[in-house]
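[Meeting: bench + compute handoff]

Bench side (C.D.) handed over the final construct sequence. Compute side (W.E.) agreed to return the predicted structure before the next meeting so the bench team could plan truncations. Sequence as handed over:
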Amino acid sequence: MQWSLILLILMGQPWSITGQLYEYKYVKTPKSWEEARQHCIQHHTDLATVTNMTDMKRLKKAANNVSQIEAWIGLHKSGNSNRKWHWSLPGLEFNETNWGSGESSSPNEYCGAIRQNLEWVDHGCNADKPFICYNESNTSERFYFIHSRKTWFKAQRFCRKEHTDLVSGLQQLRDENLEGIIESKNFIPFHYVYIGLFSDAWEWSNGSSFSFRHWEENYSDYDTYAILTETGMLTTNSSEKPFFCYEDHVILITESRTWEEALYYCRHHHHDLVTITNLDEQRWVQEKTKKATTPYVWTGLRYTCTLGFWFWVSDEVVRYKNWASPEQVNECDMSGAMETGGEHKWFKKHDEEKFNFFCSK
């Protein structure tokens, strides 16, 4: 690689500072949901997509000084009203399943539970059942069997407040520690225990597949559009409301270029190759790989042989990591790319390979 490029990468551009990959804008002028969406598309990107509890806080902050929030977001009922199963914990793909015989299609049973043999069952959401929480910040004890019986939505709220979420995804459900907890409990009085599995017909207006929902307790599934309130999400068909837009700062370029070409393209046309500093940003970026035309997508991750470490071209230190394997060093002319499918892990790839790439705006 030319020394001029090495200096450009290591020194960075004067304006090369990282920020939020997307930001929210609060518009207080009341409009219908459709009018609000057109406004957001014309002036920003779309109506707000909410991916996690952190976004819920960011939305409230964007609306500062508003004492009672009731504003449109991008969540709405799809036209065909086909229900899909999702995981409560954001960012998990719903692919392989473990349904019991005759399960997953019962009418009016839209929440998931497990039997003691770990088979999944569909269940009514308003029944009071025990449930299992997952805590990602406690490495020694990640699973909590909660004997207190709650409806599925109240169980979800409890887990998000006290831990991280309801237990979700095959990796968690197949964890040996969880199996040990389940084997030690007597399921006979309970029959079923809630997990983070639910089915609905709601979609985000930007077409993303984010499964995050945080309904208020008096949530109704009969309306068409969702609003954000002080305590969560509600559905309504009201005529006009204020609304939240979002501004996307990440763009997928579906041209195939070498890493160096991608770097110059992003810095000339946008801002820089994208930087990913945490799991929430990883989930935001990986959602866009669905439209990629190559098996990997370049990021702003670069390895320096001279100094022997990975770094972001934005000058960010590599703290959060999502490597496919820990051994991603000791080779020159390598940069980091995200896999388009699977778990969207990071892989080291030779600079001269040609992939799509992510620019930050």
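W.E. noted at the follow-up: The first helix runs from residue 3 to 11. C.D. will use this when planning the next construct.
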